[in-house]
Design brief:
Blueprint (H helix, E strand, L loop, with lengths): L1 H25 L1 H9 L2 H20 L6 H23 L1 E8 L3 E7 L4 E17 L6 E11 L5 E7 L4 E3 L2 E8 L5 E8 L3 H21 L4 H6 L29 H7 L3 E4 L2 E4 H13 L9 H10 L1 H4 L5 E2 L3 H7 L5 E2 L14 H4 L5 H20 L7 E5 L2 E5 L11 H19 L3 H18 L7 H12 L2 H25 L9 H29 L7 H19 L6 H17 L17 H31 L4 H37 L7 H15 L12 H26 L8
Antiparallel strand pairs: 1-2, 1-8, 2-3, 3-4, 4-5, 6-7, 7-8, 9-10, 11-12, 13-14
Helix pairs in contact: 1-2, 1-3, 1-23, 3-4, 4-5, 5-22, 8-9, 14-15, 16-18, 17-18, 17-20, 18-19, 18-20, 19-20, 19-21, 20-21, 21-22, 21-24, 22-23, 22-24, 23-24
């Protein structure tokens, strides 16, 4: 039974991996019909469950009650999934204003009568104040019973309505906003059993962690590593030359940065828009001595004087070659021929591939300048009518209800600013800016940011937290790692290292942790949500989890000092690269749930712990060449110590995500590529916990190699899905 159970588990892992790639090329319907929804796939899981249960009984695992019940919780989850597939009905109900509906349509186009009637009263789309970013969709309706009774109810994102065993979820709405589409889920048996399995799993994971005779407590009682050291290196800062293009003075541009603007679906200081604009255009936060505000305002007011400035960053070398660009940065005019033909056009319409992707990325920079020229990136004029605030640009279609003075200020104010700059009249420039700020305070209503939030965001923009921290952490971590390896390879005792180095090293760790904590709190305060909404934020959160873990355990496991700095530095480096999105945006409605924050937090903490097992494995391979068997065994014990809570955190994160999905969409598992790869990661690492059944994991060197290879599943889950496979979860990137 042992061979059958673990072989089936391995086969399922391979099938799941292959299925995600088949979905990429053959489509979601293909894998749903031929793999995930096929009878043989369900049978495979059933055989695995039965063989595993028989093997558990043959090993008398019931004598170890926490471990037995932990495995039993998975049987409950699988049983719930089976009940859902056999008994549940899924479909939609389309409501139109004041039209009673008493049936829903299943996915198989079957009409199912409901024991009550729904009548849509109103449908509302709510927005973040002063923006066009949708905050929620709300359907309000009357529920009428056959006995004549009725009551009002509503459904919105993350707020379901359940009645007579039928659950309703907000799914979509009609373009005329006179109708609403609700997802229907009638699953009276599967959901209770599955949820029971989830909560049973959470309880058993905690019991296993605390159990005196459990795997985790046994590892915790082992003898482990003692000390390590570090060296602190300071980084140099270099200056930039000064450009001579026309724009505001640095002082005036900084003052203008306090003006509020509608950008990226929210109200933000103009400084934020200028920073994103400059970084997108040039790949840097400043250019030739000009601040981001100066560059943005220069292009806004005097675009003709900037068109020949070689500042547009073309990253791809192949694209530069085909366009004949000799430098990485070129001017706007370089993108047009003498006949005014757009030189990127042939490559934008070409065959899909690396060259087309590079052309599209470069074209985004040109379109950014076009948007600025058309006024789409200068919506600084709020107008409040009938309690509704809308932000306009000078070229926008203005409502006829506004006064002539207001119309004139919006239309012509920007020209007055440009004239004042041309005359070098800083006093008049500052006067216009103060008038604009006063106008916003008078007409912005509740959409305006409070002064303290503007100061917080300007501070956040001014300090490149991620860039500074990754440079410091990687530099210090690498030097410490090399020194640490030197001592181990020479056979020296770590206890002989001067404590001053350990004090300095831990001090850097504390400084990095506190700085990153402040950065995340600041970002959360600015956005009004937990900073876990995109790839940039989740990588920063993962770095924070790594630093926290290192601070908790470094006194007992000195290796965590260099490892904590190295791993957090790599995470912050990844968050800083151009493919991540550092912009602070409102969450789409379905993501505005506390379950999302808990789901992401637990998974990021698990990844942080798994990354320590990865580094332990690399160090073990280095030490293996010097035959330092004792140190390799210590690293083996240390990795085992991290493996248990890491796997439990990942499991909890996955299944809390399933609960969130069920609340939001009416299904707790959709076989999305990221869901599948998270499950693959969980199963792959779970093999290493079964040391009694798979004794090869008791061999330290094999265990370390397995941890290194297993980490590839995490890289695939986080990066491979976001940037290659795609799927519902790829918005995180």
């Amino acid at each position: 039974m042992k061979k059958l159970s673990f072989s089936l588990l391995g086969i399922i892992v391979v099938i799941l991996s292959v299925a995600t790639f088949l979905e990429k090329y053959d489509g979601t319907d293909f894998v749903n019909n031929h793999i995930y929804g096929a009878w043989w796939f369900s049978s495979l899981w059933m055989i695995l469950a039965l063989s595993s249960f028989a093997y558990m009984l043959s090993r008398k695992l019931q004598r170890n009650l926490p471990a037995f019940l932990l495995h039993f919780s998975f049987f409950l989850i699988l049983a719930g999934a089976l009940l859902t597939s056999l008994t549940a009905q899924h479909g939609i109900v389309h409501l139109r204003m004041n039209e009673p509906v008493s049936a829903f349509i299943t996915n198989e186009e079957e009409h199912i009568d409901m024991p009550f009637t729904l009548t849509l009263d109103t449908f509302v789309v709510s927005y973040y104040p002063g923006t066009n970013a949708e905050a929620d969709y709300i359907s309000k309706f009357t529920v009428s019973s056959p006995d004549g009774g009725s009551f009002q109810e509503q459904v919105s994102m993350n707020r379901i309505f359940s009645y007579h065993g039928i659950r309703f979820y907000q799914a979509s709405y009609d373009s005329d906003r006179q109708g609403s589409i609700l997802t229907v889920n009638c699953d009276r048996w599967g959901i209770p059993v599955t949820y029971a399995g989830y909560f049973f799993l959470f309880a058993m994971m905690l019991w296993n962690l605390c159990s005196r005779n459990g795997y985790f407590r046994r590892v915790l009682r082992s003898g482990l590593l003692k000390r390590s050291i570090c060296v602190l290196v300071l980084l140099g800062i270099y200056g930039l030359a000064t450009a001579g293009n026309r724009t505001l003075t640095k002082v005036d541009a900084t003052y203008m940065g306090q003006v509020q603007v509608l950008y990226n679906g929210r109200i933000a200081p103009l400084q934020t828009l200028a920073y994103d604009f400059t970084q997108k255009l040039t790949g840097k936060m400043a250019y030739k001595g000009n601040t981001a505000e100066q560059i943005y305002l220069g292009w806004l007011l005097f675009s003709s004087s900037w068109q020949e400035e070689p500042m547009i960053y073309v990253k791809d070398a192949v694209l530069r070659d085909v366009l004949g660009f000799k430098e990485e940065r070129v001017s706007l005019k370089d993108f047009f021929t003498s006949q005014n033909e757009y030189r990127l056009e042939p490559y934008l319409n070409g065959e899909p591939g690396k060259l087309k992707k590079a052309a599209v990325e470069t074209d985004e920079k040109i379109q950014l300048l076009s948007m600025l020229h058309e006024g789409e990136l200068f919506k600084v004029f709020p107008v409040t009518l009938n309690g509704q605030t809308v932000w306009y640009a000078p070229a926008s279609m203005l409502p006829p209800e506004i006064s002539d003075a207001q119309w004139l200020f919006i239309r012509k104010g920007i020209n007055l600013l440009a004239e004042s700059v041309l005359k070098n009249d800083s006093e008049q420039v500052r006067y216009f800016i103060s008038k604009l700020i006063t106008y916003q305070q008078k007409n912005g209503g509740e959409s305006l940011l409070p002064e303290r939030k503007i100061k917080a965001e300007r501070l956040y923009n001014h300090v490149p937290f991620a860039t500074l921290l990754y440079r410091i952490n990687l530099t210090v971590g690498l030097l410490a790692f090399f020194v640490f390896c030197f001592y181990l390879l020479k056979g020296r005792k770590l206890s002989c290292l001067p404590t001053v180095f350990t004090d300095i090293f831990s001090g850097v760790l504390w400084l990095s942790f506190l700085t990153l904590s402040f950065c995340l709190l600041l970002r959360g305060y600015i956005s009004g949500r937990w900073p876990m909404g995109n790839g940039y934020e989740t990588m920063m959160m993962m770095a924070w989890c790594i630093l926290l873990t290192a601070l908790i355990v470094w006194r007992r496991f000195r290796l965590m000092l260099p490892f904590g700095l190295l791993l957090s530095g790599f995470c912050l480096l990844v968050s800083s690269i151009g493919q991540m999105n550092p912009q602070i945006t409102p969450l789409v409605p379905v993501l505005s749930s506390p379950l999302l924050s808990l789901h992401v937090s637990l998974i990021m903490m698990s990844y942080a712990l798994f990354s320590f097992t990865f580094l332990n494995g690399l160090l073990a391979l280095i030490l293996n060449r010097s035959e330092a068997n004792g140190q390799i065994e210590i690293l083996h014990t240390l990795s085992q110590l991290f493996l248990v809570p890491a796997l439990f955190l990942l499991g909890a994160g996955i299944f809390i995500g399933a609960i969130w999905a069920n609340v939001s969409w009416g299904r707790y598992w959709a076989w999305d590529p990221k869901e599948v790869w998270a499950l693959i990661t969980f199963l792959v690492y779970a093999f290493a916990l079964h040391t009694d059944s798979l004794r090869i994991f008791r061999k330290p060197l094999f265990f370390h190699v397995y941890m290194i290879l297993s980490f590839l599943t995490i890289l695939m889950t986080y990066f491979g899905v976001n940037y290659f496979l795609g799927g519902m979860h790829s918005y995180a990137g």
